[in-house]
Amino acid sequence: MNELMINIEQVYHTYHHDAVSEPVLHGIDLRVRRGEFVIIMGPSGCGKTTLLNILGLMMPPTRAHSVCVAGRETLGLPDNARAKLRRETIGFVFQRFNLLPTISAGQNVALPLKIRKEPLDGQVDELIERVGLSAYAHKKPGQLSVGQQQRIAIARALVGRPALLLADEPTGNLDSDNAEAVLSLLTDFHREWGQTILMITHNEHLAVGADRVINMRDGRFRN
To answer: Within 13 A of 16's CA, how many CA atoms are on the CB side?
Structure first.
């Protein structure tokens, strides 16, 4: 088995707004081993989210030498193959939760399994219990606090035990107590399940649980 979950080389990305070009990534190289917990830190606007979107196969880079995820080169893959690899391999935790407001918390957690047409086999209830929200599974996201919504979002990201978990500022909208609770959950699942986790943040206090911290500024990694 390839020991690298992520192996990217010379990744560049530029956004084009009307007639203006905005370069945001400048030749990024990154290797993340399977089972590693890596945090990328940097100020807002330094390119962290763009990089995560490329790694999560939600957008292609403007140009790159290689974007290899879970042992597979993704450059040039057709959209349906990228979507299949994303569904089967990657879980996402977002700063804004991205929960569907019209269905219950439990149904939100089960959604990735339903999309993949996999059996629920009790893991939805188990995950909701693990994040401490069994009594709230029937409630809709709007009836939950922001901390509870993020814990439900983590349960949804982990359902099916994806090999790679990508977390985009998962504590950005939380107070310090809830931020620590979310980091503790991610650390516990990483330790128990051996998932690869790549988390981006600008909060240096969250780096304590990581195997490795990478600093990013102006679209480049800094030593």
So the answer is: 4
Tell me the C-alpha distance between 104 and 125, whole Å: 13
Q: Phi and psi dihedrals of 201, rounded to 5?
A: -160, 165
pLDDT given for residue 223 in this prediction: 67
- What is the three-class DSSP state of 138? coil
Q: What does each C-alpha distance from 58 to 14, 32, 50, 68, 172 come to in angstroms?
A: 15, 19, 10, 14, 21
Place of tokens 């679209």: 219
Residue numbers in the chain where pLDDT is lower than 50 = none
Q: Is 127 helix (H, G, I), strand (E, B) or coil?
A: helix
Q: 14: helix, coil or strand? A: strand
Does residue 48 sit in helix, strand or coil?
A: helix
Predicted structure pTM score: 0.91
pLDDT per position as a tens digit, 97-123: 789 999 999 999 999 888 888 887 788
Residue type at 153? Answer: A
